[in-house]
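I am going through a labmate's work and have reached the protein record below. What it holds is a sequence and that sequence's fold in token form. Please read both lines and tell me whether the tokens look consistent with the sequence. Do not assume that whoever made the record got everything right. Thanks in advance; the entry in question is below.
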Amino acid sequence: MSSPPSPHEYDPDVYYAPGWQPPAPRTEPLAVAAVATGLLLGPVGVGVGAAALARIRRDGTRGVGLAWAGIALGVAVTLTAVAVLVALFVGKAATAPLPTDVSEPRSAHARQLVLGNCLAELPDDGEVATVRVVPCADPHEAQVVARTDFAADAGWPGQDVADARVSRVCSPAVLSADAPTDGVELVVWSPSEASWAQGDRTGLCVASTAALTEGSLIG
């Protein structure tokens, strides 16, 4: 025999009111902050995102996606900043003036040349970019014997005007009295419109000799 359940006993068929749900966990504030700091401060966002992930694991809060987004933005911004700094450094190094007489042969951009630099060979006619600079005591074919610089903020004057300006400083008067008079050709190197747009403001007068020579053509 069995007796009916007491009204005070637990009845498994009794349910609580439908629709009740435990409260959703809150979003981790650091995860939200990681996105902003990653976008604006780069590596700081990486650190904030990592701290947010640690708190989410510890406290059970939400925001994993936000934290990872902050980390990704921080990494992207950091890599972009590094790339820009490297480009600026390389660009600055590529235009830093050379010493008057280098101690050993080296390749350099034409914009780095200064008065007195000696060149292993004279480049062909046309745009001049990289040249081989050697000590003037070594055999060489050409030397920078005059230089003039346009104002950094000047507008493009036109090729004829630029050539005329450089030609004014490119005359036999710049050569040393001991320089040979035969077989020396003076060549004008002036900025082109394309190089001007890249910041080139340097005009050079280059003396070329018919045969390799040693020493300087200027006093």
